[in-house]
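The instructor's notes for this session suggest beginning with a concrete chain rather than abstract definitions. Hand out the sequence below and ask the class to guess, before any prediction is shown, which regions might be ordered.
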Amino acid sequence: MRARIVFVLSALGIAAGLLSAIVFAIRPKPAPPVFNPAANPYERGIYANGIVESDQASGENINVFPEVSGTVTAIAVHEGQQVARGRPLVHIEASVQRATAAQQKAQAAAARAALDELRAQPRPEALQIAESQVTASEAALKTSSDQLAKQRASYAADPRSVSKLALDDAMNAVRVARANLGVAQRQLDLTRAGAWVYDIRNQEAQYRALAKSAAAARALLRKYTVRAPVDGTILSINAAIGSYVSSQGTLDTYTQGAAPVVVMGPQEEHLAVRAFIDEILIAKLGRIDRLEATMYVRGTDVHLPLEFVRVQPYVSPKIELSNARTERVDLRVLPVIFRFVRPPELDLYPGQLVDVYVRAR
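After discussion, reveal the predicted structure:
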């Protein structure tokens, strides 16, 4: 009886083992890939990492830096917005510079008023006073002359009627009155002549210097508003209200380096791709002016033909991830720039990584 039970259990164990082997041997059918991996479309092709950029004739995107330092008080645009040249982008706190500009404007206005005062001379009131002084001096001279004539007549009639001292005093009084009349006449001539030409020139120079200082202060004040240098699209804003910016840009918390306050790209239907060719593969490119390439958009089945634009003729360290100069690896590459028409059915943005295949010779 026991032997029969052992036999039955052994048979059940063998059957369970066979069933388990059959079940676990069955493999599920693999799911189809979400998208096909990039495949080399050329018989001899060179693979390169690429990064999408704005189609800039001069090179890369437009990095906007302020020319002054300060705290951001307002941001007048948003990322993705299309702006015209001269449009305010970022406002920087400018209370000190605004007060300085007002002070220098007032100083220039005071210098201009002083110059106008010199040019307006003589004042009618000052001329009337000078003329009155001449009239008074003439009257004083006549009085002294009449007094001297009377004394001389009396002395001629009777020398004892007028003392020698009184006669001398009368003569001195006439000389003093005549001198005073000469001074008053010269003062009248000086008043009629107006301001001295050298005083006017000196005041003109002071006014020009202060006016230029005021203009420089106003120009510097305008720089506290960062404006769009060209027509374009706002690609990135790396500052926030309250953050500190300078001519070096602002602190990038990711790379701990300096970053532009605003990054702009042109308003065009084309985009560019900067492909990095490994230095050991440069010799296989063939004629640079006849490069043919295809771009594969990662995460999709989209592949686009690329139009060759130019080569950046400088083999440089490869830049990874953030496209920042602080992130370098021990690999040197040759940047080659292509361009393509932005596909309407797919959103592509500058800074996006793509796969590029270049036909080798």
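Then share the key points. DSSP finds five helices and 17 strands in the chain. The CA atoms of residues 7 and 13 lie 10 Å apart.
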